[in-house]
Amino acid sequence: MEENNITLHIQNADGSLTSLEAPVDMGLSLMEYLKACEYDILATCGGMALCATCCVDVLEGEDKLNEMTDDEYAMLDTLPDVLPNSRLACQLQLNPAMDGLVVKLHHTD
Questions:
Q1: Is the predicted pLDDT of residue 106 greater than 70, yes or no?
Q2: 5-to-40, 57, 65, 78, 105 alpha-carbon distances in Å
Q3: What residue ranges define each of the domains in the chain, with the CATH number in brackets?
């Protein structure tokens, strides 16, 4: 693994994990990276914490994430099925501390 990359693990709908190598030196959010990897994320607000369509559930590594902002908390609070470990992927800037993070897309279907 390159020094400027971290490994992220995405839990698929069937419970299996997909491991991805993500760059931390490009200023990408987790949402932008997952969209680039063609995951089904709408991100209709473009990463402004206004729509919650990029919600993910953090399965491992929640302690590695930055603290939730008031805007993120307010948006998550509008979801009917939010979990204590739910976060907006647009608000999570990829950084070296996130190496090994395990998330799954929070679908409301």
A1: yes
A2: 23, 22, 16, 33, 21
A3: 5-105 (3.10.20.30)
